[in-house]
Input
Amino acid sequence: MSDDIKKIMFTVRNAPHGTIYVYEGLEVKLIMAAYDADISVVFMDDGVFALRAGQDTKELGIKGFEATYGVMVDYEIEKVFVDRKSMEDRGMTEDDLLIIGEDEDTEEPIRPKVVDSEEIARMMAEQHNILPY
Amino acid sequence: MKFAVLVYEGPYNHEASDSAYNFVTAALEKGHECRGIFFYHDGVYNVTKLMEPPQDDRHIANRWSQLGSKGIDIVVCIAAAKRRGIVDSVLVDNVRISGLGQLTMMAIEADKMVVFGD
Output
């Protein structure tokens, strides 16, 4: 059966606030993770801002979702990648990225994996379906 | 090819809905199979029977309903719909309201999912 497992990638390219795309996309990820599929998430372009630690949406008057992204690993969303160039273009470093869970054994924090565009292109070529948010 | 379609944008405001419809009808004519169509984000507005476009314009909701009458599974996301005040009773015939699990099944069972929207 394992040959039949569908590889589904989410791309997050929009800024986290200002439109609902990223928020409703998060809802899809959480549901889809419960199904038998190989899920990965790639943050690129303005989507990298969604992974910035220390977001505060109080003054926007909207519900934030940093806390939910902070437990992606608990939802079995473990393949989380960030495009290095998108991050650097926006003045962010790995230290700015929020923690997405902790290792069950070592309790070490898990951060999204920073990858180059070439690696993302290679992963995309392997996917059955890519859902952009 | 068995494909599924995901529509993100509302009707009239954005080309995505028209493009999705044209894509599905053309693909079916070519003999492809459509596993389903899923409306998400503002896409949920595509299938309300409350819309009343001018007579000389296309009726987007009825168009989708006619496609649904041919046996294509057309699903409106319940979470996105509730957020926007869309409930079962305002939907055109031949579409149904259901959860993101349906989107997941479409993504898993289709060979390709084609997404229309920003």
User: Anything to note?
Assistant: Strands of chain B lie at 2-7, 33-39, 74-77, 96-98, 112-116. Residues 2-116 of chain B form a domain with the Hypothetical Protein Ychn; Chain: A, fold (CATH 3.40.1260.10). Chain B has a mean pLDDT of 97.
